[in-house]
Amino acid sequence: MSAARLESLEPAKPLEPATGQPHAHASLAVRVIFVTVGLASLLVVAVALALSFGAADVGFWQRIFGGIWSDAQRSILFALRLPRVLAAAAIGGLLGVAGVAFQALLRNPLADPYVLGVSGGASLGGVLALVAGVSGLGVPVAAFGGALVSLIAIERIATSGGQLTVFTLLLTGAIFNAFSAALIYFLQSVASREELSAIVFYLMGRVPSPGLLTLIALWAAGFAITLALFVSARDFNALTAGEEGAQQLGVDVERLKRRTFVIGSLATAIAVSTAGLIGFVGLVVPHVLRRLLGPDHRLLVPAAFFGGAIFLVLADLAARTLAAPTELPVGVVTALLGGPFFLLLLRRRGIRAGG
Amino acid sequence: MAETAPASVAPARSSGPHLEARRVSVAYGSRRALDAIDFEVRAGEVVGLLGPNGAGKSTLVRALSGVIPLAGGEVRVLGQELGTLLRRELARRVAVVPQEPRFDFSFSALEIVLMGRHPHLGGLAFESDRDVALARNALARCGALHLAGRPIDQLSSGERQRIVFARALAQETPILLLDEPASFLDLRFQVELFDRVRELAEEGSAVVAVLHDLNLAAEYCDRVVLLQAGRVFAAGPTAEVLTFQNLTAVYETEIYVDVNDITGGLVVTPLSSRARRRLQESRQTEAASQAPVDETRAAGPPSGLRAP
Questions:
Q1: Which residue of B has its CA nearest to A12?
Q2: Phi first, then psi: what are they for B32, rounded to 5°?
Q3: Interface TM-score (ipTM) > 0.90
Q4: The pTM is what?
Q5: Does B126 touch chain A (CB under 8 A)?
Q6: How far is CA B78 from CA A62, B74, B88, B183, in A?
Q7: Which of B116, B117, B65, B102 is nearest to B87 (CA)?
């Protein structure tokens, strides 16, 4: 090896700072705002669409264009349809962000809001309330109680030596879900016929038409949880380097895991206790958005709220209208729409970790 | 909202070591992976961590970066005890290039490098133009600027290694921990990466590098620490530690150290069984033509190779 040859190994790469180069990434904040506003506008369109169709014709568009509503139309629209559509939006949004949160926490794009066990506790609580003859608001309250109890129990069980182990968390969640399911089967086997049908309907998932206070609570929870997860969005990005990798990038991983588990579980608990087990929203929505927007959680978190909201509003619209006047359980619709759609997506693009 | 971290983090004290391990022990269950390691790195130094598989090199890097608990001893980072630092503060002082970096979602190379800016940014802050410029500059220093927009999961192992090194550069820390940073790199990029490492040291960084390639260690490290079974077997200036005796004892295979005629640097050569056969054959012919060789001489290195 000659001296001239050695010379050629000197760096040929530019060492000057590449200052002020315009690049798409610097405008990430702009993209976040653009995507959020865009999806929020789409949600408004979806809500309008959902208001205009239903078992009864309320003449939504005639009214918009100067027609006059009858009292019956008015009461269907404002007392039944509007609350239900707004509830569907909030619940879908909660499921969407819970999905993103758990996918980030477990670093797995196939995680969904029900994977960590809180949904099992929620449905068990709801079913217990139904068997005990509770009705009305008592059922969601009991379901939420069940979810909170299981949340605390799972967190305790999965914590050892002050550390929350994601693997243990996943196993604990699976066992909690299986255990709850077993108890629910037991309750079903001893329930009366009316109770049984109430239980089955409850578990299949349906969007309620809640009162104003419940609606406000749902939306407030939706915004608060989305904001709380958005605060951790850059930490979620760093967490994709693994737990040690994230720590070496300055993330307090223990705090992040605990916080994400609790917030994501709360979102799940609220959704399941008000609407039962509506599947696929929390899995499909983050997945589709990740394909469209990339893996940055600062985009994904707000997008998942509005994306989940749009998805569930449209799915609930389908549930109300496809077999009208009979109503399908929305959980069945999301699974029927979401399942094949998801498979198509996987087949077309191939399964990639990037989603 | 980017804070002026690098300047504020590096203290004016040039006297104390940047990174210091005192009697550091680490246990995995009941197994002691590190036993009372003493070790320090000063500004401007590149220190190599050498030793066979399972000697505790990566464990020491993990202990020095604060991701595993110590069973004893303490680590000081710029004079401050590691346990008293917040993760964010620590990540502004110490950057790590892990042996097997993970990427669970398909971020672009530039986005990965921008994650190096994470500890410098406030909770809700977005990367500024300056952060992006720093990240692109780091990519350029690793000869990887052309990869900026590529998804990380579509890059080769060697390309990923350069991206992760660029991430550590973008982190702008006074201390750099490298765990096998060049294991997947071809010779050109090995040389370029370690040239960058030396530049960083000249700019005042303290660098610790775990290395399997003893020739890279010989060329680029000011000092080396030779680990064996969780203990320091030998430590000191590279040329003093890299000897036939030390290396052969620690790696449990014969390793010869020679001087390259052209570069004047040390050349480390493990003895392959083929080379051993060649050696024995030449010795037998030597023995046949000359007087019998005594046992200790025969086991030692052949003439022409530098050995104690």
A1: B143
A2: -85, 110
A3: no
A4: 0.86
A5: yes
A6: 73, 13, 15, 29
A7: B65
